[in-house]
Amino acid sequence: MAYTDQAALAADATFGGRVRVAMVTAAIQVAAEAQGSQDSAVYAKRQILANAVLLNSGSSYLDVFAWAVAENAAITGSSVDGDIQFQVNSVWNAVAGVRAATD
């Protein structure tokens, strides 16, 4: 997929709605996580993002996630919801500001 196609996808309102649902779904899952063996800084950053997404239904992070999901050239407007969810889950740490496995 060309960059222009990815940019159009990231800006598409229907796609954005699907990404928003995936963001809220991921936020609920992350918010329910126990720290377990996660580094405390990583855990805190993941939880802060989950809380921020849940407090405003993802509005302030929608553009970030839409672009992060659309950057995967395998994602298109006809991708199944599971693929969009997988991509949101895959970029969660990056959006949360986790830069290494033990940031």
Can you offer a commentary on this structure?
- The protein has helices at residues 3-11, 13-31, 40-55, 62-70, 81-96.
- The chain is mainly α.
- It has one domain (3-96).
- The longest helix is centred in the first third of the chain and has 19 residues, at 13-31.
Summarize it:
With 103 residues, this protein is mainly alpha-helical.
Instruction: Tally the beta strands.
Output: 0
Q: How many angstroms does the end-to-end distance come to? A: 32 Å
Radius of gyration equals 14 Å
Globally, the shape reads elongated
How many helix segments?
A: 5
What's the oligomerization state? single chain
Which class do the helix and strand fractions yield?
mainly alpha
Report on the biggest sheet: none
Order of helices and strands: HHHHH
